[in-house]
Amino acid sequence: MQVTQTSSEGLKRDFTVVVEAADIDSKVTEKLTTVGEQVKLPGFRPGKVPMAILRQRFGGQVMGEVLEEVVNESSQKALNDNELRPAQQPKIEITKFEEGSDLEFTIEVEVMPEFTPMDFSKLKIEKLAADVEDEKVDEAVQQIAASQKNFKKVARNRKAKAGDAVLMDFVGKVDGEAFEGGSAEGHQLELGSGQFIPGFEDQLIGQKGGEEVEVNVTFPENYGAEHLAGKEAVFEVKIHEVQEAAEVEVDDEFAKKLGLDDLAALKDAVRGRIEEDYNQLSRQTLKRNMLDALADGHDFEVPPGMKQAEFDSIWKQFQEELERSGEKLEDQDQSEDELKAEYDSIAERRVRLGLLLAEVGRLNNIEVTTEEVQQAMLAQARNFPGQEQQIFQMFQQNPEMQNNLRAPIFEDKVIDFIAELADVTEKKVSFEELTADPDEAPAEKPKKKAAPKKKAAAKKDGEEAPKKKAAPKKKAAAKKKDD
Q1: Confidence class of residue 146 from pLDDT cuts 50, 70 and 90?
Q2: Residue 472 belongs to a domain with what CATH number?
Q3: Antiparallel, parallel or unpaired: β 124-129 and 423-428
Q4: 9 three-state secondary structure
Q5: What is the overall mean pLDDT for the chain?
Q6: Among 3-12, 151-160, 207-216, 446-455, which stretch is predicted with the lowest mean pLDDT?
Q7: Intra-chain end-to-end CA distance of the chain, in Å
Q8: CA 413 to chain centre
Q9: Which of 45, 248, 256, 411 is the most buried (most CB within 10 A)?
């Protein structure tokens, strides 16, 4: 095999590879011999089929297999011998081959840039943090209480209104016949809750306790029970009483109904939940500030193909969001060329930081364990109650979906590694400051037509946050979901 480097420009490398015909023929003969030992042809014993017949019957298929193997092995050897780390799958093209002649093909490859990560101990990063105020805990407890409605019978038998509940018996009939699942006794229904099919609850508004009423409704065409979908039904309803929502007393008894010892324990649990949310927000500010610092501390060439792929992804998202919102490209604050230039800069920054984090992980043997991926798969499965097993199996059978989970885990582990070495200063702020959009000036609201740009550049799992200092009108566009 003869390898000749024909071009070296930036991170691009071009090679021409020539594999001698004798080497190819030797491999073809070896494979055909193996075929001959296994194949059964009329008139010949296994292993006794003449090579000429084997070439005639199986030569074309075997030649294709050999060429594929030779190209793969030769191209990998060419890269290894030149100590190259491809940034993407090399582009290979066969330029010359006829049976009995040498094989010639070209390799076009973009290689990983060579750089040395900065001294992370010199990184100075600010981490925002906020204490959970008592009033936030009280607000959260009141929200819980508001969701735990407690209905009691009205003092006087008045007409039911939206927001009230009725205690009732009902029998549903289609074509005069009661249907399964359409009857109940002593059922409590909150009017306006949308628990029953459209139109049912509205016809109970204005009724009093002790009254009987016929409710006429039509089941939706897409109703879950096919035998009822689109059918007209009559419900014979007897209202026992009208109930009104009573204010929930937030006390020890209320806490006990929620499974806690007393009100103090409820508040502690709520405070802990809010602290978890605050800690997550705090981590996001740390990560965002760290990525900005890392971007400022590194400036190396990125593979053009990787940058183009990232730009194409961002631009596609931008166009899709424009289409969803009904806006047009000409309605934006910037021209198409200006938008593309800015997104190109964002794409380059993402790729550079992605390569940096990958290199830090490689140099420091940071890996994502099988157990960590499985935990992430379980967490995803829990988002689909009743389908946990199917979702988990879907992840197990799909390596690409597993990689989508592995990437952000790896990124977080590298971020944690760098944070341990960096000079991290915690700054206490208010809840409003902790949750403020870092790309938005105080009291400034984003323009309506900037909305598509916000979503267009949303990051994919495992990708880093784009730089926040880019173009004021488009900063929001560069935000990623884990900032």
Answers
A1: confident
A2: 1.10.3120.10
A3: parallel
A4: strand
A5: 87
A6: 446-455
A7: 50
A8: 18
A9: 411
Domain that holds residue 410: 266-478
Whose structure tokens read 């029953």?
Answer: 196
Closest C-alpha to 483, from 43, 128, 82: 128
The pTM assigned to this predicted structure is 0.68
**One-character DSSP codes across 59-71:** HHHHHHHHHHHHH
pLDDT of residue 440: 61
Report which residue type is found at 68.
E
| Boundary of a domain, candidates 58, 81, 110 | 110
Q: Could you report the per-residue pLDDT of 440-451, keeping only the tens digit for each?
A: 645 443 333 333
What is the model's pLDDT at position 54? 87
pLDDT tens digits, residue range 408-426? 999 999 999 999 999 999 9
In a domain, 448, yes or no: yes
pLDDT at 361 over 90: yes
Greater model confidence, 468 or 264: 264
Q: Is residue 139 part of a domain?
A: no
My answer on whether 295 and 203 are in the same domain is: no
Residues 360, 413: contact at Cβ < 8 Å?
Answer: no
Please identify which residue in the block is written with the tokens 């009743």.
Answer: 386
pLDDT digits (tens, 9 = 90+) for 315-344: 999 999 998 888 888 888 889 999 999 999
Do 174 and 28 have their domain in common? Answer: no
Average the pLDDT over 293-305 and give the result. 94
DSSP letters for 203-247:
GGTT--TT-EEEEEEE--TT-SSTTTTT-EEEEEEEEEEEEEEEP
Domain shared by 49 and 178, yes or no? no
Q: Is residue 74 a part of any domain in this protein? A: yes
Q: Same domain for 10 and 54?
A: yes
Claim to verify: residue 194 and residue 341 sit in the same structural domain: no
pLDDT of residue 439: 65
Same domain for 228 and 342?
no
**Helix, strand, coil percent content, the chain, rounded in steps of 5:** 45, 20, 35
15 and 66 inside one domain: yes
Angle at 64 between CA 62 and CA 66, to 5 degrees: 70
Q: Are residues 440 and 324 in the same domain?
A: yes
CA angle (222 as vertex; 218, 223 as ends), nearest 5 = 60
C-alpha pair distances (Å), 24 with each of 16, 18, 52, 53, 104: 17, 11, 17, 19, 12
Question: Residue 262 contacts by C-beta under 8 Å, 6 or more apart in sequence?
Answer: 252, 255, 256
Whether 144 is in a domain gets the answer no
Q: What is the CATH number of the domain that holds 211?
A: 3.10.50.40
d(CA 360, CA 366): 8
Domain boundary among 246, 274, 307: 246
Stated as kind and residue range, the H or E segment containing 168 is strand 165-174
Structure confidence at residue 248 (pLDDT): 83
